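Follow-up to my earlier ticket, as requested here are the two runs.
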Amino acid sequence: SPEALTFERHVRPILKAHCFRCHGETDDPKAGLDLRLVRLITHGGESGAAIVPGRPAESLLMERLRSGEMPPGKKKLDAADIDLIGNWLDQGAKTAQPEPSDPKQLAITDAERRHWSFQPIAARPLPKVQNTALVRTPIDRFVLAKLEARNLTFASDADRRTLIRRVSLDLTGLPPTPRQVDAFVADPRPEAYERLVDRLLAAPQHGERWARPWLDLCHYGDTDGYLTDQPRPVAWRYRQWLVNALNADLPYDQFTIEQLAGDLLPGATADQHIATGFLRNTQSNREGGADLEQYRVEQVVDRVQMVGAVWLGLTVGCARCHNHKYDPIAQTEFYQLYAFFDSADEVNIDAPLPGEAERDLAQQAGYDRRRAELVAPVRAALDALQRRWELRLLEAFRSPGRDYVWDRQWELLGLIWGGRLGEGQLEGCQIVMLDPPQRTAREQERLQEYFLEYGAVIDPTEFNRLNLSQLSTKLRALNQTRTRVTRAPAMRETRHPRPVFVHQRGDFRAPGQAVLPGTPAILPPLPSDQRPDRLALARWLVSPEHPLTARVAVNRIWQELFERPIVTTPDNFGTQGAAPTHPELLDWLAAHFQREQGWSVKQLLRLIVTSTVYRQSSHARPELAEQDPTNALLARQTPRRLAAEQIRDAALSASGLLDHRVGGPSVFPMQPASVAMEGFENKWTPSEGRDRYRRGLYTFIQRLSPFAQNITFDAPPPGRICARRERSNTPLQALTLLNDPVFVEAAEALARLLVATDLDDGQKLRLAFERCVGRPPSTRESERLMQLYQARLASLAKTDSAPTTAWTTVCSVLLNLHEFVTRD
């Protein structure tokens, strides 16, 4: 018998030398073997007519090889090579499993191995300090020890009004009400502050506040991006899962696992499937003429970069085209990480909201009966015609460039299914590639409906004879009588495995070395007893020996509470990143978070905000100006301007307009119509009723023309990973606070609230001040604002509305104060 032949050892060298147009010989799509056919060949026999084991003469591969169509400068294969490939097909078109990439090909230096972030997380001993009376939590010892070494100490505690406003904004994103401030100021109990912290951590608004920085990390959006920027009507289901998970204090290790691989968990729940929506926040190009594979690859690359930034704190994307220039990450290792996500496909799942499942079940039997009655007269002919259409699509997929009409039909299947039909990108293509018995009933229905609307191209005469357009219209009408359950974006393991290759120079059209899923050699190895899939990767990230995940998470949380993180490059813990200002504290926090607190984010937050370090006043001190101008030593608190969404939320809260409902679809606040016109056929119809006053978290994120107010206040571009927002101070911000409809409306609402009370003018001013900045005005502030009120009142006609108009002016001033937009 002939020698056992494999693709990698025997066939691929021949094709690489003669046929691959993906190695840069030519850009002519008709020259040599098409890249898509090459990928199908490497599937090892799963590519239908592309390779037919046992019948080489019927294989598209053999047809191409015998045709003599070679790239320029390449000679036709000789008979011996063609016979060898034929024998390989006869033997079953076997492919050897690619050998795992050798990590030793990138030499790791001793300096890189010693880099602080690659060292195991050690349980650091608590430092000794002189002034133990200032120590409330172990955190204080680490900070105070560095201060005392420089003859410095903590600032005094912030006053109670400042403290409740600070911790309320930090833990819930909203300012406290005057009643809450007064209650805390008057509470004599020693543990009053701890009780306040526990109340804020338990509030439903907590999850909303802490969801926002996480959505920055995964660049959440309600639209696709790119030119057409089509809407994603169910993207909000992931955001809802995120808020719920944060409110429930889902441990960070499980939080990680569910977002990266919830679908792979044994007996995965609907919520765990929805959690994988984290990976669905990549941009999608559904523009006509877009290369489906190109943009699928871009999505996978983006997912790898997200994992690198969010959990590893490394710029792994720098190794996409070549070995990393600074960190010990080989290009091969980038594609080993890539392989974990290349095996996942987008899918929208049925995820009923409360009450929907019961309603859907009640409608199911009647719907199925009516649908069967409509289809029955043409069932056999319809199935036969649809199957012809499917096979023709598959032929176009396997042999692109032969018929532009069907190339376009295959492209449209991916674009329309994923865009206008609101499904997962390429989900329709994945369904067509399945044999009909492998499809679910719902997949069969959806594919049939797509065919009835777009499939006439297969045989217009037969299509018309069967009146299939009329059947399509009837089925659309029938679907409108049934209320489908709400869906949710998710990921699932592909039903069509793909081989993974290094992309030479980052070009997906130039496959190089085959790789298997794997992790960088500088980090602990992936357990060998686990299947190397997304679930194994997620568990590896939160394993006890992993040096990065806990450090990166703790650093980002610290950043949200102190403005300046311990490592000032929160997405780069590599050799070019900043060194930690308090390395022992970072390690102690990471170890405590992971080992003692069981990955509880709420316990970590409580530990930090109850420390003396956090409770300090933010007032500048002369002795710090020279020794610590950037407050790296944490000898005081750091004031910071509120985030974009928080500023609007604070105005709505102070005015009484804020709608406190948690969750639900995105809403459209008021903004100039010209903003939406900047995008491609974007539509921005302002929401009505209570939806106009939802928290900023729920504002619809249009990637190409984002909500203008958020951009003015430094919200990050919704197409890029953001681990740290910038803070700017521009005239546009002042103009927005003065003139934007929401701030004008908030000032008017607060004025009406004041006028409706029985308080005198001085008391009204005090109430307005307390609602806006959490404290009463000083004597000088009262005098100036009452002068403004009286002057404005005198300029108005003596009407019933005059006091409201005058108070609106005063309230507008309060909403424009630096103190209003700043967390002290």
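Run two:
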Amino acid sequence: MAGWRRSFRLHLRGGTVERDVDEEIAFHVETRTEELIEQGMSPSAAREEALRCFGDLQGVRRSCLEIGRRRQRGRRRLEILSEMRQDAAFALRQLAKTPAFTLVAVLTLALGIGATATIFSVLHAVVLRPLPFPEPERIVHLWATWQGDERSVSPGGFLEFRRSIRSFEHLAALHSASFNLTGEGAPERIEGGRVSAGYFDVFGIRPALGRVFSAQEDQPGHERVVVLSHRLWRGRFGSDPGILGQDVRLSGQLYRVIGVMPAVFELRASDPELWVPLALGPDQAVHGNSFLVLVGRLRRGASPESAAAEAAVVAKRLEKIDPQSYQGKGTRIEPLLDRLLGSYRRRLLVLLGAVGCVLAIAAVNVANLLLARGAGRSREIAIRASLGAGRGRIVRQLLTESAVLGLAGAAAGLGLAGLGVQSLVAISPANVPRLEAAGIDGTVLGFTVALGLASVLLFGLVPALRTARPDLQTMLKEGGRSLGSGLRDRVRSSLLVVEVALALMLLVGAGLLIRSAVRLQQVEIGFDPEDLLTAQVSLPTSEYAEPARLLAAVEGMRGGVEAIPGVRSASVVSLLPLSRYNLSSNVRIEGKPRPPGEEINGDTRSVTPGYFRTLGISLLQGRDFTDRDRASSPGVVIVNQRLAEMAWPGESPLGKRLDYTGDLLEVIAVAGDIRAGGLEEEVRPAFYVPLAQFPKDLWGAEIQLALAARTDGEPAAKAEALRRAVQAVDPKLPVFGVRTMGEIRSDLVATTRFNTMLLAALGVIGLALAAVGIYGVIAYFVSQRTAEIGLRMALGATEKKVLAMVVRQALQPVLVGVTVGIGGGLMAGRALASLLFGVSATDPATFAGVVLVLVTAALLASWVPARRAARVDPTRALAP
């Protein structure tokens, strides 16, 4: 019995099929039954005993059958892999036979895939990659709002929010500040921040060296400690771990270094390079002056909505505490990532959609190439089908060729993407968060390979299905010259419609952004930026607290700059135009009180005499400041035209007075409006006061000033001389931000210009690919209908008629594509609406221009094959 079981097990594990197993069991049962009958048992008892003895073999049967099935599946997988290797080898041989087709298809795909992978790499680094903080989704900003605009928070408001909102685990405040770093080496201007205790706890990041501030160090009298950024520690202090405990001089004050933050804490080039305690004293915990940015970490389980609801309750309470400061103000919660990205998320998504259109156009071109290739291989496919190859087998072979093309295109596209990412990082606007992390990593590699396969397999499926369904009798008889030509023409024309529609969408988006950029460049800024050199300087209040010393230093710097050969005039101002920053305050007009919440809010600038002449700002009425407008003289002010119209509509403002920080100032002039902030911003009310009369208590810890010099010729050539002139007054003062006003204006549109340039380049690529596609379709049409064209010409058709027929054939799908593309262009315009300036998303001129360009390109692309058709020799075309 044991021998039978062993024999049975070996037999089963040999790989028999299920029917053989069952027959083997039946054979053994019958044999055992006969043996038992011969031993004297009755037939029924013998049968029952035999079945009982062999019943335990069923478990062996099941296990062995499973082994057999696994072996069969393994053999099938091996067969499939073997067939795939054969298909791949055959595909490589076939593609090698047609190098021109292969090269064009791979380059077309590489262009589309490379562009898409480049933008995806940037999108992944900037938008999709999580922030390098624990649970970054819990980190939010808390803003005050007024008339829909976000505002900073006052110290009193910060303390009330921190005390009352339970949804926050930590809530901290940041006040951006700049410092003069002096000591060993040249003086350097450092961007930093004054932060409250718990600021670093909000982000959940521990220092790389040392520690961060304690609550005690965030108190007046104990705040002379500093935490360095990794960038500053590496660049200024050579990554010296011994920096801990040393003193550094910041704006004339000594601070002890207690910590260094890790590199992951730096997300943008403009992020602070050092942090010192905010150290709000009781006299600073007031509600009037708002200058703090609040950032908090939500408690686990708390939502931004719950924090917003609590903040709204606190805002109502603050309005009752100080109606003058909080009347009409609200609050808003904003996730940290949204704040970091700003408009970059939308801009990158727009670019990704644009390169997706380019990729689709490239894939459509490849689909048309595959259709043409399939028509040329119709006889080969017919022979394979007649020899027994099924349609599925033929489709798989053709899709394998498409996959090989896709992988080759992805590999080439990956190389282009590597170069593209480097180029984008090099020419991109400054301060794009995390852009330096963009590169070809595993995610981008996987995306690129998947993109190559998906694009070709998707658009290669239709050509494969069409090619794999031949009419055998016709193909073998005619050599494959008419393989479903009508159907193929319809498929190719449909693909051409898609291609033209996508190209039109791309060109509409590019056209709208180009017109928007042109309008932005044409914005009247109110002064002459040509031949204007600017520089920044910051004087520590600890050393220049006395107004006399401050004015002497200012006059020394201005006089030194004016003495430079080639400088026509120089002036000093608290804040340059086009700076995107402003110092604003509510303006109260004498004799014209306004209810709370409806005050005029105006930008404030303190200037030296001659400022308006230096910048080329026109004075519409009145006189300029003079050296007689000193601190001991009556207070005077110059208002801009916008403020004059709001405060004294229909009246002359000269001689009128406005209240600034409790002092009544007499209006002595009206200046022309200028763009104080971004070019796309509306002109704001503004007023100017003499630097000598600017309230001393508003300077803060540092007196930040800007120099402006009008030059003869190239202003950048005077930069070094300007530095020497300033440091001749005080060698410890770093001179920074030395730029021409033209550069400042150019930087304001850098992001818009960058996006416009990229989208315009993608539009040109899309147009070129569409033109190539049109050319390919018409050239194929001419080659397939050579005999028909010859017959027409033999029957009397002229070259002009043939030319018109071919061009008409080309324009039919183009015009359909234009019609479809206009609808897509309207959607593209809506997607770009928030990025446009001075141009409607449905701008008729842009749409008309794009249609004209696209139709012209289609005519030019169809002209060459049309001319070839018109020159067909009827005798050669009709020859057998």
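The only thing I checked on run two: DSSP finds 27 helices and 22 strands in the chain. Let me know what else you need.
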